[in-house]
Structures are given as structure tokens and as C-alpha cells.
């Protein structure tokens, strides 16, 4: 009895251990996705702050970190490519972008494919990130790729960031980068595809508010401390009450820069909205034209069908009338032959007599 009870307990513990491993695995996957999305938000924020004072290029550490983070996100749980022999070779996120972003109008996919100095798939993906940022279309590329759920499901495994709820956050997060003017050299060392991208987490582990930053402490707390308790929020988060003239000048400068950036983003979004409204109105007008054409063709087909049916009825009536006339004439001829057989013979005899007399007259005339 004791042995049986111990065996049952061990079985229960074994089953619970399997469930615990599964829950731990799902927790680790969720934490990994949340970490990458959070650090990407931090990276976008630092890029926007830095762009107010200098041009963002390949030498900017903020951009290099952002490119590494985006590469890690797009490579998260990416499926390998299965060969003919059943082996699975690694893939780059460029293979997914190349297929999923074909529908973007005036895309740069073909241009990057034809670049001579970029050979590896990973290098092409890094070149695409730079070109999309310079074109201010990175968010549009990502949104278009994520909407193609069938292709995304074909390239990524379950639990990938691009297949979860974090994907919508990523597309909206990258929209703010359209207000930044980037300048990149597509022949630099940043396109080297022989080494994987490494994320530098140290700038985000201890974020110090600088005097040149355009974001305030209140925004930082709303971004990071929304899920924390109220007791963890410091009481004095704002600047001191007494500030000198230089501090006030820096504060006004930051507010002005933030206002200018917001105004530029507002103008860009309004322009984008206007373009989308124009496209929608054109689509509606084209749809109306197509519907009108369909209605006209249906009406024409109905009229043509009615005309053909009328012609068929007329032809059938004429055919019936011809058949009745032929039948009537045949009956009349049969009735005549059946009623006067002697008259027909007498007429034939008279005709023969006339023929003989005419031949005799011709002979006498020739002798004379």
C-alpha cells in the first residue's frame, strides 16, 4: 500500500513538473518579447532626442543600437529554410521582407537586390533598414508586411513578435521616425553581414535626464511606471521651484524644440491622411464607375436576350407555316390524282395526237 501511494505521488509530481516547464517556457517567451519591444521604444525615443541636435548617420551609437534591436525583433523565432536533403539552413529577415513588402508602392526591394557591394542576405536586410529610414517609409513597410499574415505565418514560428500583439505596437512606434532626416552610406561597415547584431542595453539600464533632452521626466514616468505601484513613484519628479535664468532658458528651448517636432509630425500625419483620403475617394469613384458598367452590361445582355427570344419565336412560327403549306399542297395533289385518273389519260392521248399531227405537217412542208 505504501509503495502504491508513493508511486502515485511521484506520478503527480512528474506531471506537475511538465506543466511547470511549459508555463516557464511561455513566461520566458513573453518576457523576451516584452524586453525587445520595450528596449525598441527606448531606442526610438533616444533617436528622436538626438536628432534635434545632430544628423543621424552610421556613426551614431543610438542608430546602431536601434538597427541591432530591429534586426533582433525581425529575426525573433524566424524559421529556417529546409533543403532537399531535409536539413534546415538559417535564414535572414531579408527573405521575409523581400516577399512581404512587394505590395508597397515605389518600394526599394529591387534596388537593394541589385546592389553590387551587398551580397549576403543579412547585409541586404541592413541596407533595407537604412534605405527605408531615409525614405521615411519604414513604418509603412512594417505595417504592410504584418498585414500579410499568410506570408508572416509561413516565415515565423509560433510565439514570434511579428505574430503577436506586440507587432501593432511596433508599427506605431516606428511612425515617429518619419520626422527624422537620416543620412547613411550604403558602403560602410554597418552592412557587414558576417556577424550578428548585438544590442547594447547599458544606455537604458540607467537613464539620466539631460538638459538637452526634449522629453520630460513626467513622460518618462508615464512610459515606464504605468504598471508600477504608487509607492514606487518618487514624490518630487519635477524641477526645483527656484531656477536661475539659464535653467529657464534651457527649459524654454526644450519646450520649443518639442513643439517644433510635434508640429512636424502633425504635418506629416496630416499629409499622410490627405493622401489616404484621396486614394479612398479615387477608389470609391472607380468602384461606382465599375458598378455602373456592370449595370449597363446587364441591361444590354437582357435586351439582347429578349431580342434573340423574339427572333426564335418568329422563326418557329414561319417554320410551322411552311410545314403546313407543304403538307396542304401534297394533300391537294394526292386528291386530284385519286379523283380523275381517266381525265389524266385522255389528256395524255390528246397531247399525243397533237404531236403526231404537227410532225405530219412538218414532213409535207419539206417535200413541197
TrEMBL record:
<dbReference type="InterPro" id="IPR047340">
    <property type="entry name" value="RUNDC3A_B"/>
</dbReference>
<dbReference type="InterPro" id="IPR047339">
    <property type="entry name" value="RUN_RUNDC3B"/>
</dbReference>
<dbReference type="Pfam" id="PF02759">
    <property type="entry name" value="RUN"/>
</dbReference>
<dbReference type="InterPro" id="IPR037213">
    <property type="entry name" value="Run_dom_sf"/>
</dbReference>
<comment type="subunit">
    <text>Interacts with RAP2A.</text>
</comment>
<dbReference type="InterPro" id="IPR004012">
    <property type="entry name" value="Run_dom"/>
</dbReference>
<protein>
    <recommendedName>
        <fullName>RUN domain-containing protein 3B</fullName>
    </recommendedName>
</protein>
<keyword id="KW-0175">Coiled coil</keyword>
<feature type="compositionally biased region" description="Gly residues">
    <location>
        <begin position="8"/>
        <end position="21"/>
    </location>
</feature>
<comment type="similarity">
    <text>Belongs to the RUNDC3 family.</text>
</comment>
<feature type="domain" description="RUN">
    <location>
        <begin position="57"/>
        <end position="189"/>
    </location>
</feature>
<feature type="region of interest" description="Disordered">
    <location>
        <begin position="1"/>
        <end position="26"/>
    </location>
</feature>
